[in-house]
Design a protein that fits this description.
single chain, about 450 residues, alpha+beta, Methyltransferase, Cobalt-precorrin-4 Transmethylase, Domain 2, seven-stranded antiparallel β-sheet, about 30% helix, globular
Length: about 450
């Protein structure tokens, strides 16, 4: 079974700064395709590490899978990747190869995992036959999933900053070992927010895989997640954390984030070092059509990490209400993300103030799934006049922010705006109206109970 993060990316594939997608590269039978792969490895390594997913139409919309030709899959071995690195990359890095299959497919794909945290920049030791790679050049990643030669001051400043941080980390580790030899056996470094998201997404996927194929709780039409971490974060025990989640979290709507219900089998349960709830775990006599709208999965851990997965409210029957003429879906609402991110940030603020202390900081990652073809629209219940119709052409939207917990009280509107601008611009470059954010944040805060 593939690493949970690798599987998560594979099932929701899109190119970005840490993910590159390639076709079968002719099974690496020629130097041109070997050089193409080397360029991506160099750029990803210089960006702090990443992944190369093999076996997809990298020119086609939606990155469709390609069946491998004779011998193409078998050509991708650990030795073959190491040979490419030794031939084209300096200093050489130790890439790792995994094989994985999409949840809805039977095609096996090689995934090359490129390490980061190098102390010196990686560069090409030789060129490709058709200038796929230029000898002596340093390659970097650019937004949108492109690998290009480092050319301007910004490219070099970002690269140098990463290298300096890597050296600082190495030096601090060495100093720690001198002062405290026991530090050599400390637990592994905390996993990234993406790892935490992948772990919980896989746990939810395992639950819904037990349902019949047409069960609406599978959320086949769409879903969204939030993942966050608060640092530092200290609780005495799970019981203390559970009481706070149950009794002290602010509520700004009838169905707030991390909704806490008390009846079996949907009330939160202790699982290891975390509290977990699946609200879709309803009793057998309840019909599936009655339980699709409210089937959140959420988890809060003792170390300050949180995760929530929720259906897209826009997929409810009847959305967007009495709008005429009735637009064609699927939809992405103008105002709902602002509502939900405002509530989420206030939840994080309350949790951070309770368990994090004055210097606590947070990091928040939001992801929307199955967004390809969704159309911006507004519900008839909203009092805003906004133009609809802009369409998203990518299947996953993601954005993140980080800040001190104290900033939420003083700068909430700016945080929500910064988090959602990258989401809305994927709808044909739509600009999120600042006044909409201002108005919705005010409405949410006025609803507190």
């Amino acid at each position: 079974m593939a690493d949970p993060k690798v599987q998560f990316i594979l099932d929701n594939l899109q190119e970005n700064l840490e993910v590159e997608v390639k076709n079968w590269l002719n099974g690496l039978q020629d130097n041109g395709n070997r050089a193409k792969l080397a360029k991506e490895i160099i750029a990803l390594a210089n960006n702090g590490g990443g992944y190369v997913f093999i076996g997809f139409d990298d020119e086609g919309a939606g990155l469709p899978e390609i069946q491998p030709g004779a011998g193409e899959l078998e050509a991708f071995t650990q030795d073959a990747i190491a040979s490419v690195v030794q031939r084209y990359v300096a200093p050489p890095c130790q890439c790792r190869l995994e094989l994985a299959t999409r949840a809805d497919s039977n095609i096996t794909h090689p995934i090359i995992i490129v390490p980061g945290n190098h102390r010196t920049p990686l560069f090409a030791t030789r060129g490709g036959p058709n200038q796929e790679l230029e000898s002596g050049k340093v390659y970097v990643r650019r937004p949108g999933g492109y690998s290009e030669v480092a050319r301007n001051q910004d490219d070099w400043e970002k690269l140098i900053e990463r290298l300096v941080k890597a050296r600082q980390s190495e030096m601090l580790g060495a100093i720690r070992e001198v002062l405290d030899p026991s530090s050599r056996i400390l637990p592994e470094e905390e996993s990234s927010l993406e790892d935490w998201q992948a772990e919980n997404y896989a746990a939810w996927q395992q639950i819904v895989d037990e349902f019949v194929p047409d069960d609406p709780r599978r959320l086949a039409e769409g879903r969204w997640t939030i993942s966050f971490v608060i640092r530092p974060f200290e609780t005495e025990n799970l019981g203390q954390l559970n009481n706070v989640l149950d009794r002290e979290m602010p509520k700004f709507s009838g169905w707030p984030p991390f909704t806490y219900l008390h009846r079996d089998p949907i009330r939160p349960q202790a699982q290891g070092n975390s509290i977990t709830a699946y609200i879709g775990a309803t009793t057998p006599e309840e019909q599936p059509e009655d339980r699709a709208d409210h089937c959140d999965y959420w988890r809060i851990a003792r170390d300050g990490r949180g995760f929530m997965l929720r259906p897209m409210q826009e997929d409810r029957e009847g959305y967007p209400g009495q709008v005429y003429p009735h637009p064609q879906g699927p939809f992405f609402d103008w105002a709902l993300p602002v509502y939900r991110m405002t509530e989420t940030l206030k939840f994080i603020e309350a949790l951070g103030e309770r368990f994090g202390g004055d210097e606590a900081e947070f990091e928040l990652l939001v992801t929307y799934y199955n967004t390809n073809g969704r159309r911006l629209e507004q519900s008839a219940g909203h009092r805003y006049v906004l133009f609809g119709g802009a369409v998203c052409h990518t299947n996953q939207l993601q954005s993140r922010i980080s800040a001190p917990i104290s900033d939420i009280a003083t700068n909430l509107e700016e945080l929500v705006f910064s988090l959602l601008v990258p989401i809305f611009e994927q709808f044909e470059f739509t600009e999120l109206p600042r006044q909409l954010v201002t108005n919705v944040v005010a409405v949410v805060l006025a609803y507190r109970r």
